[in-house]
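Case study: Winged helix-turn-helix transcriptional regulator.
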Amino acid sequence: MSYKLNLDKLDFQIIQEMMENAEISYADLGKKLFVSGGTIHVRIKKLEECGVVKGTRLSVDLKALGYDVIAFIGIFLEKSSLYDTVAKELRKIPEIVRLNYTTGNYSMFAEVVCKDIKQLRFVLHDELQKIKGIERTETFISLDESLNRNVVVVGE
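Here is what the predicted structure looks like once written out:
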């Protein structure tokens, strides 16, 4: 069943609260927003069915797991019509965690997470450069992540 996207103030409050703490119980969230846990459950189900909520993710400290290199790669395509084909190939590379089709100097921009420079070199040299349609790349290594947050959603 699909719902028409018709969100109200409570929907936006639920989204904001869940983005801040996805582990909160429906009962506790209901108390915080002055509605029943059942109401929260129904609203979240509706948000999932209309595609607003796409699931939950575990937030992990990658450095603690030994992933010390985060890089951003600007990708120049031979021609923009190759985007879908190249994106399909890039999705096969597990180190690529985010991929965007962009305007400006690059056709695409990828975020890559690696354990070390050797692994990054492998991704750049042995994986990316073999993909047909990529003309060249430009790599930026992150020295520090100063900010990583969700957008504040606001209802109408």
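For the exam, be able to explain this: The first strand starts at residue 69 and ends at 77.
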